[in-house]
Amino acid sequence: MFERNAKVDVELNRDVEGLLHEAGKDLILPIVQMGEPVLRQPSGQYAGQLSKRTLAKLLDTMRETMLEAPGVGLAAPQIGLGLAIAVIEDHLRDDEDDPREIGELPFRVIINPSYEPVGGETRSFYEGCLSFSGYQAVRRRWLDITARWQDEGGKRHEERMHGWPARIFQHETDHLSGEVYIDKAEIRSLSSDDNLSDFWAEDPMPTEAAEELGFTL
To answer: pTM of the full predicted structure?
Structure first.
């Protein structure tokens, strides 16, 4: 749980309410793009600084903004808010043979998240970011992790995650430390969304892309 005696930060709460007002009835906010300082600053730990009403509105807005984008995760810095809060959600695809091992990931609020690898296996796949719109690149990530976080009520959770859900959790958690996926991506793999669709999307395993573009998996 969050601290019982935690006091609402009135100024911060007011600022967040102002931000949410900009979302309007559709609950959609603009997503911060690369180059804005908030994406490069470590987020502050959340300990109950917002009222329950404001936090609930914030989480609803983050989810709607993520789905509208569309995306499978959104961290608070991506809407200009430097708090360690993110939302994630993804669902199974029709292709059972997808090497990315996409699994069902119900909607979750992850507050103050962290992770550590389980074993040493990694996988390299194309991934993108809503804050680096229009491009994707190959990023190596841990295949299995132990994920830890708090939910909106402050309850602590720990879960082993595998495959694509683990990648999503890593991606959003990294945002909260000021890291964007491109920081550790294979830079020669960088592709526009259109070129990825035209040249490399037929096989999710980026083997051919590595050969043609000159990077190592």
So the answer is: 0.95
